[in-house]
Amino acid sequence: MKRPVAVIGLGFMGSALARALACAGFNVCAWTRSAARRAEFSNEFHVSASAVDAVEAADVVVLCITNFDASAEFLELAGLAEALGGKTLIQLTSESPEEARRFATLAEPLGVAVLDGAIATMPSSIGNRDAVIYYSGDRAIFDREHEILAAMAGKPTYCGTDPSDASSMDMAWLSLFYSAALGLIQGIAICQAARLDPSTYLNATPSYLPEILAMSKDFERQTRLDNFTGNQANMTLHLGGAAQVLAVCAAKGLDTRLPQAAVDLIQKSIDAGFAELEFAVAAKVIRPL
């Protein structure tokens, strides 16, 4: 059996983290506020009577609860300071960049080594080799606890020393997630308006993924080099495509806010003098220097 790890929080994500750690051979001791959830998982790993008991039994504590306020309350529990002292606390509760800094400030007097994290995947993917969790804070903690981090997600990714760096990277991931989800939903509406089966469109999604991956690699190279020339499609061509989607949605009486946003951003990029450059240049319009 490997080192003891406490998991505080057994919601959808917390329970997935606990299971992944247990499957990797770690001695998991968990706790959550819900008595029903404690009973539900009592046959899978040790469930402590209190949060402090779980922390006392572990070398490393993984915190994955409701929100920042709940995390702050956790740090104020009677007896927690003594239980946490000298240990590692991996903060995986969803929080904003500013909240991540505040949590680090609150934890500092407790003498605990804090590594802030942001989970960039769904509970069903926790423990998978391609799952990503972003981390920030002391690089030495990240390196020291790498075995535990890799058990929870196969690609633990260090972002920087500022406690807020992982959360900021998570905002970038969520931007992609929600944009992709909205795009899928808009496509479903277009299919339904045209009396087409959305399953045909959705089942073809895996065929689109290589294009998305190739675009991501191109964006990385262009952004890193600050060179947005290419041979795929410039902003003028993209304007034509986005305008067609907007026109079809408008003609069919669909909500046009998503395609309108695309048209507006592309047009703004063209107006800024980027007509002959590729799509990644639009980041300069979103974040003017």
Automatic annotation (TrEMBL):
**Source organism, top-level taxon:** Bacteria
The NADPH-dependent reductive aminase-like C-terminal domain extends over 162-287
Q: List the InterPro entries.
A: 6PGD_dom2 (IPR013328), 6PGDH_NADP-bd (IPR006115), HIBADH-related (IPR015815), HIBADH-related_NP60_sf (IPR051265), NAD(P)-bd_dom_sf (IPR036291), RedAm-like_C (IPR048666)
User: Which residues belong to any copy of the 6-phosphogluconate dehydrogenase NADP-binding domain?
Assistant: 5-160
Tell me yes or no: is Transferase among this UniProt entry's keywords: no
Molecular function in Gene Ontology: NADP binding; oxidoreductase activity
- Which keywords does the record carry? Oxidoreductase, Signal
Query: Which residue positions does the secretion signal occupy?
Result: 1-18
Protein name per its UniProtKB record: NAD(P)-dependent oxidoreductase
Q: What is the lineage of its organism?
A: Bacteria, Pseudomonadati, Pseudomonadota, Alphaproteobacteria, Hyphomicrobiales
